[in-house]
Amino acid sequence: MIGAGAVGSAVATLLADQGRDVLLAGPALATDASRVAAGMIAPLSEAALDPASRDAASVLSAGALAWPAFAERFGIPLRACGGLLLSPSPQVGAVQPGEQVSLDFAQSLAPFLQRWDGSIRWLPDERAVDAEAALRRLGAQFTRRGGGRIDATLHPAADGTWQYAGGRIVARQTVIAMGQGSETLAGVAAELAVLTPIRGQILRTVPGVVPPGAPFVRGPGAYVAPQADGAVMIGATMEADIRSLTPSHETSQALMAAAATFAPGLETAGMTVRVGLRASTPDALPLVGPSRRAGLLLATGLRRNGWLLAPLVAGLIADYLAGKDPGPLARRLDPQRFERL
Ligand SMILES: Cc1cc2nc3c(=O)[nH]c(=O)nc-3n(C[C@H](O)[C@H](O)[C@H](O)COP(=O)(O)OP(=O)(O)OC[C@H]3O[C@@H](n4cnc5c(N)ncnc54)[C@H](O)[C@@H]3O)c2cc1C
């Protein structure tokens, strides 16, 4: 398994749990998209807010459905926090998910939501994980199940092996789960050439700013996503084709201004800024399954839903490796689908 982000860690842990001999290789970098993520498991609000994901609703819902059993199996706290979706005005004719609620009701759940004149929809089934804690947990569960770990960057060698500073790896099957950066292996797996980066900047407050368990609130231009310790994450930008990991002061100001339209009283002292790079495909769905190159499987291109989809992707890769039918969604995520267009 190359890449120890949400996707590589989820796949590796599930495979180790099934008794497979798995080596998980990759450095743990603070800038991995998986570490900076808000951790929302939010299929309905994602399909509603992200124009590119509108046709992906069934995939996103399947991702959310895979979470409870996965979280229970590996002891990952999955918060049933729900989500509130704000839009400027009741959109006549537009199909909006969830139930329309009053500001009073929304404030009883999310006291930091201080004002909103437009429509508020309540999505009680949306959930969340704390990304960094979930990664740590997956890493521990993987090791407990006998998985091997190498903290190194791998490079392909001409003889089909994988090289790193400490040596060489020969694997019967390799899964590429390198997130943004996977496209550097397009010479090995041509399907990876379709990937493009989307930069995301996000802010994190100090702990204790909101009540633990509060729902996330998604408004125009920003969301406020509470974490288990009562910190909130205010995010996130979607900046296509930008690879810079340097935080931008102007971008932080714009995120705070957007959040202040509905949560003006949030305590921002001590806030930190994080940047991560997402990998995206032309149809906003990931590449999951066998490459044309024998012995290679791909689990990458998760765009803005890597946490939401990680257990689903893990199950699909496990099915492929076991020679089982991966089910009806597999064709939509087939890494070779762009060759058919
Ligand atoms: C600001 C922001 C907020 C987000 N919020 C959410 C959210 O609320 N919910 C959600 O579902 N998703 C969210 N996402 C998206 C989510 O974070 C990504 O889709 C997900 O993290 C992708 O996981 P990954 O494992 O594919 O990639 P990554 O997390 O990028 O991990 C890839 C790993 O591969 C390693 N790697 C790369 N090259 C090599 C190599 N040659 N050898 C070894 N290892 C290598 C990297 O070091 C890295 O550890 C957010 C993303 C951002 C940026």
Explain this structure.
It is a single chain. With 341 residues, the protein is an alpha+beta fold. Helix content is 28%, strand content 22%. The chain has nine helices and 19 strands. Strands 3, 4, 5, 12, 13, 14, 15, 16 and 17 form a nine-stranded mixed sheet that branches. Strands 8-9-10 form a three-stranded antiparallel sheet, with no helix packed on it. A hairpin with a 2-residue loop joins strand 9 and strand 10. Helix 1 runs parallel beside helix 8. It is globular and about 60 Å long. The model has no long low-confidence stretch (mean pLDDT 95). The structure holds flavin-adenine dinucleotide.
Secondary structure: elements and pairs:
Elements: H1 6-17, E1 23-25, H2 33-36, E2 40-41, H3 43-49, H4 57-74, E3 83-87, E4 99-100, H5 103-109, E5 119-123, E6 127-128, H6 131-144, E7 148-150, E8 155-156, E9 162-164, E10 167-169, E11 174-176, E12 196-204, E13 216-219, E14 222-226, E15 232-235, E16 239-240, H7 249-260, E17 272-280, E18 287-290, E19 296-300, H8 306-322, H9 330-333
Parallel strand pairs: 1-7, 3-13, 11-19
Antiparallel strand pairs: 2-6, 3-5, 4-5, 8-9, 9-10, 12-15, 12-16, 12-17, 13-14, 14-15, 18-19
Helix pairs in contact: 1-6, 1-8, 3-4, 4-8
The protein binds flavin-adenine dinucleotide.
Flavin-adenine dinucleotide binds near residues 34 and 235.
Helix tally equals 9
Shape: globular
Which series of helices and strands comes N to C? HEHEHHEEHEEHEEEEEEEEEEHEEEHH
Helix content: 25-40%
Q: Count the strands?
A: 19
Please give the largest β-sheet.
Answer: 9 strands, mixed
Strand-residue proportion: 15-25%
Average of the residue pLDDT scores: 95
The whole-angstrom Rg is 20 Å
Which CATH class of one domain applies here?
A: Alpha Beta
Low-confidence stretches: none
Q: Enter the CATH topology name of one domain.
A: FAD/NAD(P)-binding domain
The CATH architecture designation of one domain is 3-Layer(bba) Sandwich
